Amino acid sequence: MQGFVKIKNGSYRNQEVRDEVFPLIKQWELGSKGGYITVDGTGRFGKDKIRVSVATPTDYELVDAPAPTIEASDPALDEQRMTEIAERFEILDDMTKAVLNGDIRAMIVAGPPGIGKSFGIEQQLERANLFDQISGRRVKSEMIKGTASALGMYKALYKYSDSNSVVVFDDCDSILLDDVCLNLLKGALDSGKKRRISWLADSYSLRNEGIPDQFDFKGGVIFITNLKFDQMKSQKTRDHLDAIQSRCHYLDLTLDTMHDKILRIRQIARTGELFADFDFNQLDQDLIIDFMTANQTRLREVSLRMAIKIAQLKKSFPLKWEALAKTTCMKAGGN
């Protein structure tokens, strides 16, 4: 039987965790940077195994499994909320075009994982790059995914430093926790007419690649993150993020609850895009989303990716897809 833990006072990646309940994976340990416990952070952070920093074992307590809570649904309010969600993503599309056109210098997009933050941006980058490729011009934009070092970030900014060039950092949240990366980012987003970016440390890598130790950045930056800037625990990090926010547009997609994520999935399914590759009728689509709604507290994640996984099962195993989904898409003990 799976245990649960209530964290009274802790943090994960500088985000405060207070009076929250998580499935427990491993109890308190002392590491090189202090104490931590390992929990399933799927519901809050979109990751099924995270280490939450807690100073001492007294900062958490073992608790019984919380009763699953599923928000009551009001059809009229749901329709209104889906319209609001669609409008937010339309704003994201418009702002992305403005960055690609050079009308807007920079944008930060915040929202939980798996709800399509990157998809629309990536589509527009591919479209812009296709025109460059057809014309025989150098591609002017790139999406960089995953961890980025400070030196790697400096190189990427230099590569796309020309006007109308754009570099997109997707799921590179480690940048926000590194002082050197933050200072480079602030330089790229500066509101002055000239944005001078410098690398003051000696680097064989830069010399070998012919990259100068300083340059003027004239391009655009889009930063896609799962982190909420206003929930960061460290005052030092929060000061950095405040400085970044003051330099660019900040778009919070406001999908903060499990119910919001379900509505986002319904909204995308309604456009015909979500299950376009499966040749499902409306009943099939409704069955998948109703299954996700009923089991939202047990699924490993509530996301567009999970909807596709379940759709694949329904396509391959039309008579037993629910049983297979409960086995492969739910947390241990979720059947």
Using brief descriptors, characterize the structure shown.
335 residues, 3 domains, 21% strand, Rossmann fold, five-stranded antiparallel beta sheet, globular
Characterization of the model:
The protein contains eleven helices and 14 strands. With 335 residues, the protein is α/β, with parallel strands linked by helices. It folds into three domains: 4-63; 75-252, Rossmann fold, CATH 3.40.50.300; 258-328, no CATH class. The chain has a five-stranded antiparallel β-sheet. A five-stranded parallel β-sheet has the order 9-10-13-8-14, covered by helices on one side. A hairpin with a 2-residue loop joins strand 4 (20-31) and strand 5 (34-41). The longest helix is centred in the first third of the chain and has 26 residues, at 75-100. It is globular, with a radius of gyration of 22 Å.
Give a brief outline of the structure.
With 335 residues, the chain is α/β, with parallel strands linked by helices. It is built from 11 helices and 14 strands. The two termini are 12 Å apart.
Radius of gyration: 22 Å
Number of helices: 11
- CATH class division of the largest domain: Alpha Beta
| Termini Cα gap | 12 Å
Q: Report the helical percentage.
A: 40-55%
The backbone outline, from C-alpha atoms, is globular
Number of β-strand runs? 14
Give average pLDDT, whole number.
88
- Reading the helices and strands in chain order gives EEEEEHEEHEHEHEHEHEEHEHHHH
CATH topology of the largest domain, what is it called? Rossmann fold
List the helices and strands and how they pair.
Elements: E1 4-7, E2 10-12, E3 15-17, E4 20-31, E5 34-41, H1 42-45, E6 47-53, E7 60-63, H2 75-100, E8 106-110, H3 117-134, E9 141-145, H4 150-159, E10 166-170, H5 179-189, E11 196-198, H6 204-209, E12 214-216, E13 220-225, H7 235-245, E14 249-252, H8 258-271, H9 282-294, H10 304-316, H11 321-328
Parallel strand pairs: 8-13, 8-14, 9-10, 10-13
Antiparallel strand pairs: 1-4, 1-7, 2-3, 4-5, 5-6, 11-12
Helix pairs in contact: 2-3, 2-8, 4-5, 5-7, 8-9, 9-10, 10-11
